[in-house]
Amino acid sequence: MSMLLEAQDMMYTYPSTDRPALNGLSLAIPTGSKTAICGHNGCGKSTFFLHSNGILRPQSGRLQWKGTDYSYRKADIHALRQRIGLVFQDPEQQLILNTPYEDISYGLRNAGFPEEEIRRRVEQMLVRMGLTHLADQPIHHLSLGQKKRITLAGILVLEPELILLDEPTAYLDPKSEVQLLEQLDRIHAQGVTIAMSTHDMNLVYTWADWVIVMDQGRVVLSGTPLDVFQQTDTLMTLGLRIPMLYDLWLALPESWRNGAAPPRDMEAFKAWVSTHHILQ
Ligand SMILES: Nc1ncnc2c1ncn2[C@@H]1O[C@H](COP(=O)(O)OP(=O)(O)OP(=O)(O)O)[C@@H](O)[C@H]1O
Ligand SMILES: [Mg+2]
């Protein structure tokens, strides 16, 4: 398996704090993967993302893109950001222009695309993200979920080699979440690697093909979803939820897994779910 982005023993402490936010972080994002990064509030997910596109620089340890150490020369960082797109956790930190249309075009214009191509791509992305009706609204009039969708569109439209999404589904309603996941699938099918941080373990289970679990600035588990979710004790100790579908699958009677039908009566099924503590 080749690795697109690799961190080795990274340390980072924010100025004026005394606890490291990254404390010997070593992880790898496989090329072509759909990687989910999970872990508690404050375990260092956003700090890792800010390192990945060169906004922060590790105080020790190393970070590699396709096997080569990061260079922090201005031109190299600029080039790296064309290849690695980061969608911030907080959309307010990312939106800079007045309207969604202007903001989504900004990265393409910066990268020197011709006006015709910019218009084509932005209009297509507005449709795909269900944002057409908001295209010319003042951004400061929009809701947090709408702002988040604009920042997502602004990165997806650039089609970088690696897309990093910091809690992309936070603030999104179910319809917007489906739209986002459809766009991610479309882009992933074109060969783009995607890594997202999320607290939604059900999304991790259904979406990811590679899972990284962090705690206190380092990685505690990483591997395929099955490898990771089999470590139920570690996940429980960390206070993380076991995905509902995985829990349900484990709890199914052997006969159901082998094709026997579950109860047809929904109340009986609900009673069965509650006696097996699946939703707790
Ligand atoms: N700008 C900052 N200045 C000082 N400390 C910070 C700053 N940003 C984050 N930290 C600290 O660094 C640690 C890691 O924070 P980080 O935001 O990376 O966690 P996270 O895993 O993204 O959390 P969440 O799930 O809440 O988004 C935390 O202890 C946090 O308090
Ligand atoms: Mg965060």
From TrEMBL:
GO cellular component: ATP-binding cassette (ABC) transporter complex
Topology versus the membrane: Peripheral membrane protein
The ABC transporter domain, residue ranges: 5-241
Keyword list, A-Z: ATP-binding, Cell membrane, Membrane, Nucleotide-binding, Translocase, Transport
Keyword GTP-binding: no
Pfam families attached to this UniProt entry: ABC_tran
One term of GO molecular function: ATPase-coupled transmembrane transporter activity
Cross-referenced PROSITE patterns: ABC_TRANSPORTER_1, ABC_TRANSPORTER_2
InterPro entries xref list: AAA+_ATPase, ABC_transporter-like_ATP-bd, ABC_transporter-like_CS, ABC_transpr_CbiO/EcfA_su, Co_trans_ATP-bd, ECF_ABC_transporter_ATP-bd, P-loop_NTPase
Subcellular location per the Swiss-Prot or TrEMBL entry: Cell membrane
Annotated function: Part of an ABC transporter complex. Responsible for energy coupling to the transport system. Probably part of an ABC transporter complex. Responsible for energy coupling to the transport system.
Family statement drawn from the similarity comment of this UniProt entry: Belongs to the ABC transporter superfamily.
Protein name (database record): ABC transporter ATP-binding protein
Annotated organism of origin: Paenibacillus selenitireducens
Lineage: Bacteria, Bacillati, Bacillota, Bacilli, Bacillales
